[in-house]
Structures are given as structure tokens and as C-alpha cells.
Design goal:
Blueprint lengths: L16 H7 L5 H8 L10 H52 L13 E8 L4 E4 L18 E7 L10 E10 L2 E10 L1 H48 L18 H50 L6 H29 L7 E4 H10 L8 E5 L4 E4 L1 H18 L4 E10 L2 E10 L21 H6 L6 H11 L3 E5 L6 E7 L10
Parallel strand pairs: 7-9
Antiparallel strand pairs: 1-2, 1-5, 3-4, 4-5, 6-8, 9-10, 10-12, 11-12
């Protein structure tokens, strides 16, 4: 098998060895060679340059096609006019020859340079003085009645210009006679030369104008884009308050700047939430760790074994609180990271019933009213966590009653599963209902700490509901708090009859 012939010179330096052979093989060899070729440096690399080159190429192609078409139409029109005059003269002389009146030939029309009448034996019967003594023009084809025309680069009169010759053959009393009438194409050639020179001069000027205008226009159009790029390049994680300039053009670039500022708004809000979350989490972790350390130090200092169980029991409670807080923080991190859940078709009533039955030692029994056949798509573990968090919140503040109701209702997008958890506690003021779902928020800080809450339960429940395409809101209630979860029913259909 013959070895492949590699290119020589500087272009071949990067093509030696197995890598070079692979670069020459396969359907993508040419693009790879172009990427390595020094010619790639000549290609425009900016949008402005590519737009200018593209506009110039398009106009150049269009100009070339238009120039060829213009020259062709101009020459055809001038040839037609010249041939018309010559044909009129030739037909007039042919009629005189047919009637035997060649002596009545008149002077040539304007534009006609020569006339020659030749019989079938090649004898010149009549000619204007400018062809006197010249050899007869030989017909290009055998004589037969009719009219033909052709162009001569060097006619009977010579000269630097072409000539259009019209040949009319007719029957006469003396036999077949051919009339040759020629007209100079001097005007046609002059018009062609003038037009070609104008196009040769005007074409490059037009292309230069197109290049200049395109360069300036694209520069002005891309100027705001460059300003946006420069501003974004200067924004660091500590400068998220900065915004890109929005041009007053109300076009795509302005919308791009507005979208970029909206994205920066979201990034700034996310950064603020993250810093606030870290600060709040550090504060929440510091308190039980401090108490735990104090209890352990006291246990080391106390020599009475009878006090150790009480001290160790308090330390275990703080450890349990730390474990719960760490679990909540981990769950929030998973939700914020938008980790995909494993969706499954679930009977929401069975999930809620399982979450209620798993609760042991509730201070107040939970009264349930669950509709059958309410099916949703989601994670059973996370939906059960929503129910658990809502019941934990209700148990902390309820006086003597906690109710849980599951039913369906009609919504704008189809049937909706509605889960309501109500209690007869102090309730939530209307102005604090949204703030209650913020992370580490305690509307009654002292009471929440006494009940062991860290201010994450409702925030986690809302995030999990949103992750399932639903909502969690605090709504009006005759007494106490009323938390309402709305989730889309699977398939948007009605639940099964009870």
C-alpha cells in the first residue's frame, strides 16, 4: 500500500506523524486543515469584519451579474437597431433587383456603410463607390431566397470596429441575386467600452462605499454590545449591584441589555439570599453548639454521678436539635440546587395518611378528612415532608385542635389537589403571612425557640410544593392559622369517586 503524500513547507509542519495522517483522513479533513492553515489568519474574526466582508461579497456578486446583464442588453439593443437600418436598405434594394430596376438605387441610409449586389456567378452587379473595385462578398451559405445577418470582425472596408452585415437573396429576371448591406458597429463598440469603463471604475467605488457604510453601521450597532461586554467583564461576585447600560434604541440590543440586567438582579438576589442563609445558619448552629459545650464542661466539672444523667440528657437534646437543623439545611441545599426528583404517580391521600400515622406522641390528635383517588405526580418522600412540616408548625401553636383536609377543586389549568392544615392557635397576622415562609423567620422568636423551631419548616414546605409545580400559602381562617397547599392533579382529571 502506497504511503500518503504529505504537504511540504511550513503548512506541513503540523501534519507529521500519526496525528497528521488522521488530520488528512475522513470527511472532516478539510475543516481541520483549514483550522491549522496559516490562511485561517486571513479570515475575519469579528462580527463587524464578517458583516462587512459578507456585504461586500454579496454586493460584488450582484454587481457582477447586473454588469453582465446590462452589457448584454445594451449590445443586443444597439445591434437590433443597427440591423434594422441595414435590413430596411437591403430589402429595398432586393425589391429593385427583383423588378430589374437596380439603376434606381438611392444613396444609403444613415448608418449604412456599404452596399454590394452580387449575382449567382459571383459578379458584382452594383456597389456603392466605397466598395468600387473590391472583390465580391461571398455568401456564407448556398444561395436561396431569404434574409440572413451576421457580424464581421473585419469587414470589406476593414477598420477597427465590427460590422453587421445583412444578406438578402431574391429571384430576379437574370437569376438569383444577393444584396449585401453592412453597417458599422462603431457606436455599439463605443457604448460597450464606455459602459465597461464606467462599471470598472464605479464598481470598486460602490464596493468601497458599501464596505465603509457597513463598517460604520455595524460599528454603531455593536457599540452598545461592546459596552455591555465590557461592563459584564468588570462585574465580579462583589460587584453584582452594577448594571449594564441600556441604549435608548428599543431594539434587540436594548432588550439584550434589559435581559442582562434582569439576570444580574437575580444573581444579586441569589447572592444576598446565600449570604443571609449562611449568616442565619451560622447563628442557628452556634447557639446549640455553645449550649452543648457548656453542658459538657459542666459535666466534666461535676463529680456527683447522680447529676450526670440530667446533664447528658440535655446534651442529647441539643445534639438532636443539631441533627434536625443539619438535615433541614441539607434538604434546602438540595432544593436550591434543583436536584431532579424521581416523579411517580401517587395517591396523595395515601401519602398524607401515611405521614399522619407515622407521627407518635403528638400533643394534639390530628383530625383528618381525606378524599380518595386524588392522584399527583411527585416524590412520596418530599410530599410527606410537606405534610410533616405543616403539622409540626400547627402542633407548636395549636390550642386544642389541628385539622387536615384533602379535596380537589377546579382551577384554570384543570383540577387541583387542595391540602389544608388548620389550627386554633393565635394565627398569623395578614401582614406577616409572606414573611412566615422566609428562612429562619420566627414571628414569635421566644415561643419558637421554646418549641424547638429553627424557622425552616414552612420555608422547606413551600420550596417542596413549588418543586412539584404547586403553591403553599397562608390564608384567612376564623381562628388560628390556615395553611393551604395546591398541587396539580395528575393528568388534570377528576378524582375517582369515593
Amino acid at each position: 500500500m502506497a504511503e500518503p503524500v504529505l504537504p511540504r513547507g511550513r503548512f506541513a509542519r503540523g501534519l507529521r506523524g500519526p496525528e497528521g495522517l488522521r488530520a488528512l483522513d475522513g470527511p472532516g479533513a478539510l475543516p481541520r486543515l483549514l483550522r491549522r492553515s496559516p490562511l485561517r489568519r486571513l479570515l475575519p474574526t469579528t462580527v463587524r469584519a464578517r458583516a462587512t466582508v459578507g456585504a461586500v461579497l454579496v454586493v460584488a456578486v450582484a454587481l457582477a451579474l447586473a454588469s453582465f446583464a446590462l452589457l448584454g442588453l445594451l449590445e443586443a439593443n444597439l445591434l437590433r437597431n443597427a440591423e434594422r437600418d441595414a435590413a430596411r436598405q437591403a430589402e429595398t434594394i432586393a425589391r429593385l433587383a427583383a423588378s430589374g430596376d437596380l439603376e434606381k438605387m438611392r444613396p444609403t441610409l444613415h448608418g449604412v456603410e456599404f452596399v454590394q449586389v452580387v449575382n449567382a456567378r459571383g459578379r458584382v452587379l452594383r456597389a456603392y463607390p466605397n466598395l468600387a473595385g473590391e472583390f465580391p462578398i461571398v455568401p456564407g451559405k448556398p444561395l436561396r431566397p431569404g434574409k440572413e445577418s451576421h457580424t464581421l470582425n473585419a469587414g470589406p472596408l476593414g477598420g477597427e470596429h465590427r460590422q453587421r452585415v445583412v444578406q438578402v437573396t431574391t429571384e430576379t429576371p437574370q437569376g438569383m441575386v444577393t444584396v449585401f448591406v453592412g453597417t458599422s458597429l462603431r457606436d455599439v463598440d463605443a457604448a460597450d467600452d464606455t459602459t465597461a469603463a464606467a462599471l470598472a471604475v464605479g464598481g470598486p467605488l460602490l464596493l468601497a462605499t458599501v464596505a465603509f457604510v457597513t463598517w460604520r453601521v455595524t460599528g454603531r450597532a455593536l457599540g452598545p454590545v461592546e459596552a455591555i461586554r465590557a461592563e459584564v467583564a468588570g462585574i465580579s461576585d462583589r460587584d453584582l449591584h452594577r448594571r449594564v447600560p441600556v441604549p435608548p434604541t428599543h431594539d434587540e440590543v436594548a432588550r439584550l441589555a434589559q435581559t442582562m440586567n434582569t439576570t444580574l438582579d437575580r444573581l444579586e438576589s441569589a447572592g444576598i439570599r446565600q449570604r443571609r442563609f449562611i449568616a442565619d445558619a451560622s447563628h442557628e448552629l452556634r447557639s446549640p453548639i455553645t449550649v452543648l459545650r457548656t453542658q459538657l464542661e459542666v459535666a466534666l466539672a461535676v463529680r456527683d454521678p447522680e447529676l450526670w444523667p440530667e446533664l447528658i440528657g440535655g446534651a442529647l437534646q441539643d445534639i438532636e436539635r443539631l441533627q434536625q437543623l443539619a438535615s433541614d439545611l441539607l434538604l434546602l441545599a438540595r432544593i436550591d440546587a434543583a436536584q431532579p426528583m424521581a416523579p411517580a404517580r401517587l395517591d396523595l391521600g395515601a401519602v398524607v395518611r401515611g405521614a399522619v400515622d407515622a407521627r407518635l406522641g403528638d400533643r394534639i390528635p390530628v383530625r383528618t378528612e381525606l378524599a380518595d383517588g386524588v392522584r399527583v405526580d411527585g416524590s412520596a418522600l418530599w410530599l410527606a415532608r410537606v405534610v410533616t412540616n405543616l403539622l409540626d408548625n400547627a402542633q407548636r401553636f395549636a390550642d386544642r385542635r389541628v385539622d387536615l383536609v384533602l379535596h380537589t377543586a377546579a382551577g384554570p389549568g384543570g383540577r387541583t389537589a387542595v391540602l389544608e392544615v388548620t389550627d386554633d392557635g393565635p394565627g398569623i397576622p395578614p401582614g406577616d403571612r409572606e414573611r412566615a415562609f422566609e428562612r429562619f423567620t420566627r414571628l414569635d422568636d421566644a415561643r419558637s425557640r421554646d418549641h424547638g423551631g429553627a424557622g425552616l419548616g414552612l420555608a422547606i414546605a413551600r420550596d417542596l410544593a413549588a418543586h412539584h409545580g404547586g403553591t403553599l400559602t397562608a390564608e384567612d381562617s376564623p381562628r388560628g392559622a390556615r395553611m393551604v397547599v395546591r398541587l396539580p392533579v395528575a393528568g388534570g382529571g377528576d378524582p375517582e369517586p369515593r
